[in-house]
Amino acid sequence: MARKILTEHINVPGIETFDVYRKQGGYTAVEKALKTMTPEEVVEEAKKSGVRGRGGAGFPMGMKWGFLAKPEGVPRYLVCNADESEPGTFKDHHLMKSIPHLLIEGMIISSFALGANKSFIYVRGELLYVVRILEQAIEEAKAQGFLGKNILGTGYDLELVVQPGGGAYICGEETALLESLEGKRGNPRNKPPFPAVKGLYQSPTVVNNVESIANMSWIINNGGEEYAKIGIGRSTGTKLISASGHINKPGVYEIELGVSVEEFLNSDEYCGGVRKGHHLKALVAGGSSVPILPAHLIMKTANGEDRLMSYESLSDGGFATGTMLGSGGFIVFDETACIVRNTWNFSRFYHHESCGQCSPCREGTGWMEKILHRIEHGHGSMHDVDLLVDISKKIEGNTICPLGDAAAWPVASAIRHFRDEFVWHITHPQEATRPGAVYQGEMALV
Amino acid sequence: MTESPNLVAFTPERLEKVNEIIARYPQGRQKSALLPVLHVAQEQWGWLSSEVMDYVAAILSIQPVEVYEVASFYTMYHLDPVGKHVIEYCRTGPCCLMGGEDVYGYLKQKLGVGAGETTADGLFTLKEVECLAACGWGPVFQIREKYYMNLTNEKVDEIIEDLSK
Question: Where is the NADH-ubiquinone oxidoreductase 51kDa subunit iron-sulphur binding domain (chain A) (predicted)?
């Protein structure tokens, strides 16, 4: 069995309550950090751990903390990004509803490290029931002296606020999230200034993902160096993977970074293989925005090496033959899945979720959706395939925030690896629009 | 500032809740309470009429337009009257892989309405939404705070019958 850092106790009955969580060793890391360490020492452990942002960007958390400006007399804020909305990703949802105190404990340690006395957990609005679970956990922790004024008699004060969103994928982008937290539309801000200098209420702010923060208890209890021994290379520690699609056992799994894609997909400890009687056609490894790969390229790199579940291995080969770990949204497609239909679906998602601020994204996502819709419905022309690639290139890199890239990559990669399937839809409209029809041309299934 | 502030008012319990929410933020940052307060308002009235939004603006000491622009940006706020139960059905890729489109077709047929419509008896409004972060348990829909997961036609029958009682 692989080592578990976040989910070791997740199935203990009653783990959502303070008492049970405490009995499993919960909050000892808060005691250790607040009573025996300086904030700088806590930051140092985060740096040593090498833990990288688990929301998708993969930026080292300790280094991000190091950028926080500390002008005299100005409050600093920690904001937890719990706006999990990337299609294929549901790990933070699972973690927060099952073991809320792990996040609360991580928030206390991280806020202490950053010198924040008021911290926020911004939860996507659809998860109002999770908001209530977190608020309950906060009440319990407060009653036990782990939150509020003079925590554990150390003189450190911290108030935690859980903030629900209103339904908008874009608020997962950190500056859009801050706008939303200020009670505004979720329009991403131009950078610089970065949140570390001017964030919430124009004050220095760190925004971290739920899973990133949840790692802090283990890191403080065991040391950053121990954490860095888990995983592979610069992909240290464990990662929660949300597994969905055509597999035998969908769900959230904690892996040690570096396990092979083959093992993750086929082992009974994890996905349990592609559903019975079917074969792997394609896979999205890191949430809907990362490039989709055909079966042979997700199992092995272009050099024939085993593909591993790590930041580096998944991106091996660049976008020509590789993809990204992203948020760990692992979506599996068997031979019954239509790539054109799925690409249209994802494209509709990004069109719907574009905030409308930047023209390339606002207009481009709509054009891509419209073109994909006509190809899928038998009205495409051969010119459309190259037109899609052209539009995707004009969106990518030309917007304030990464939503433009996120919208461009699924389309560009689907055409890169499954062009024949798009062409078939155009040349065989009658066949392709029959209910349940799927391209049966040559492709390598695994 | 508001045209009819006396026509709408939070219940005493909700007003207390709203004041507790406003107190969470630093002095002068009460606009931060807007999204959570709109959820409370929607809980009370079911949807956000312009009277309700004006009332919220007055409570938070902000301009009505600041409320309108937020309420119209975020998908969870209903700007038109809705039925007793709003079914928010996930239409995104991973749920579709699990047969989400077929179950959706069945649900539409069963209710006799399409996306954005309300049944004649006013019981159900159907809304299509994007990913609800429950992809491993798809197909999924949500009614208020509750998630209904691993949907099948049979489960849809049970849920609708249960909520129709």
Answer: 340-385
